[in-house]
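SEQUENCE-TO-STRUCTURE ENTRY
===========================
What this section holds: a protein sequence and its matching fold, both as plain text.
Question of interest: how does this chain fold, as expressed in C-alpha cells?
***
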Amino acid sequence: MMNKAGFVVSLVLLVPCQVLAQDSVGKDFEQKVTKARPLDLSRVRLLGGPLKVAQDLDAKYLLELEGDRMMAGYRLRAGLKPKAEGYGGWDSVTGKQLTGHIAGHYLSAVSLMYAATGDPRFKERADYLVKEMKEVQDKRGNGYLGALTDQQGTDGETLFQQVAQGNIRSGGFDLNGMWSPWYTLHKTYAGLRDAYRYTGNKTALELEIKFSAWAEGIVSKLSDAQVQRMLNTEFGGMNEIFADLYADTGDKRWLDLSYKFEHESFIGPLQRHQDNLEGKHGNTQVPKLLGSADRFAYTGDAADIIAASFFWDRVVQHHSYATGGHGKDE
C-alpha cells in the first residue's frame, strides 16, 4: 500500500493467533463499544520500506541493551548481588532517580517486538527479565518489585510504608523523598502486563498480581483525602494498569483499585467540561486520561469517557501548536 507521503509500505496479514484469555464480561463489553481497533501485532509483518528500516534499527538497539544492567538496582535494593554494573542517568542506582523504569520500558519493548516480528530472541529477553524480577520479588517476600530510593539511600519499600501510615509528603514530582515513584513503578507493571499479553508469559501475570496486591495494601490504609494528597505527585498510568489487570483476570478488586488512582482535582473539572489544562505538566496528565478511556472500554462508565474525550478535544484543538507538541518542557 502507499501512504499519503508517497512511501510504499509492504506488509502481509497472517492468520489470527490465539488471543490471551480475558474476563468475559469486560471483553464482551469492549467488543460492543469499540468501533475501531488496531490489528494484532502478531498478524502483521513488515516486508520492506521505511517502516521496516525503522523497525530493524529498533530491533538492533534492543538487542544491544543488557538486562543484567537494568536489573542492577532491583537486585541491590533487595539484598542480592548485581550481575552487572547498572546504567547511569535517570536509571542510576545512586541517589534519588527513576531507578528501575528502564527495565519496565524494555520489557514492554521486547514483548511488543516479539509480537511484531516473531523473532524468538525478543521472547528470550522478555523471559529472562521476568525470571530476574521473580527472583527479586521472591527475595522481598511481600510483592514489592522496585529499585527506588531517596537521596539518602532509604529503600523505596520503607518509604512507601511511611505513605501507607498516612505520613505523606507529596509535591509535583516528589513523594516522601522519592522521584515520581508510582510513575516509575508503573513502567514495571506495564512491562509485566505486556510480557503476559504479547509473549504469553504466565509468570509475568503472577508477578503483576502480587505486585498489585502490595499496592492495594499501601492505599487501602489511607483515607480518601490522604490518597488525593498522594496523587499530587506524578503517578503515570496506574489507573490503566489495574483496569487492564481486571480485564486479564476478571477480578473486580483490580478494577476497584484503579479507581483509587483517580486524581479528582484534575479529572473532576474535565468531567464537567471545564478546561483546566493551562500550565499543567503534560507527561503527568496524559496517562490519567488514557487510563480513563481504557477503563471505559471495560466498564462503560460514562464519567470516564466524558473526561477522556473532552481532554482529547481540548489538547488537540486548543492546546497544541505548530510543532505538533502540547507543551514546553513537557
